[in-house]
Write a structure and sequence with these properties.
The structure is a single chain. The protein is about 35% helix and about 25% strand. By secondary structure, it is of the alpha+beta class. The strands form two sheets. It has a seven-stranded mixed β-sheet with strand order 1-2-6-10-9-8-7, with helices on both faces. The protein has a three-stranded mixed β-sheet with strand order 4-3-5, covered by helices on one side.
Amino acid sequence: MLCVLDTGINPAKKNMELDKKLLDELTDTPILHLYDWEGPSATYGYFISPEKHLDLVAVEQQGLSLARRPTGGGIVFHIWDYAFSFLMPSSNPYFSMNPLENYKFVNQIVLEVMKDFFSLEDSVAMIQRSVDEMGQDCQNFCMAKPTQYDVVYKGAKIAGAAQRKTKQGYLHQGTISLCSPQENLLREVLLSKKDVLGAMNMYSFCPLGQMNEKKKLEEVRASIRKSIVQVFIRKLFF
């Protein structure tokens, strides 16, 4: 059985609190947590200090809501992506003590969804090793550096993720790149503007390009959401 839990639109902090609560209370049922953001948002890994990488005054001026994730990883902007969370109990046969195997399990599902949805060619794959950084701060931004088992297409990153493992199981927080980063916003809020912006433009796969039509983006997100549910169910139970 898979529990598909849609908690709707919430502030970034609430979405992250819900993920942590789900992990703390995880039993024997895998959970696919679906949610949306109340306005432009960004999350950052548990060990990240956002003030070292972002101009917090500019973040506030831009109306960008920040929240710490219960997982690791870098900063993710939830404006031009599709985000989801998956929780796997340690009692499930698909659970592995090897974190990379757990990344691989979830990202294989993302790979299948994206390949089918955007009719991508066979060059969609999970990379086997992390790429070199374009700048010192790039390691602190999810879409600025592909890492092992990220989903890539022609060298560009389709999906990134961060995980946290406890005795109950693991929480996988995923992000799927859909649109080109909004350069004007990034130039305002990034402290390392040149390196990070250049790396994000180079390494982010953006199938929708410069998508400015909110309604169309929401339609694509809804379709991807439906596909993710279907593929998770098939992967877990068939």
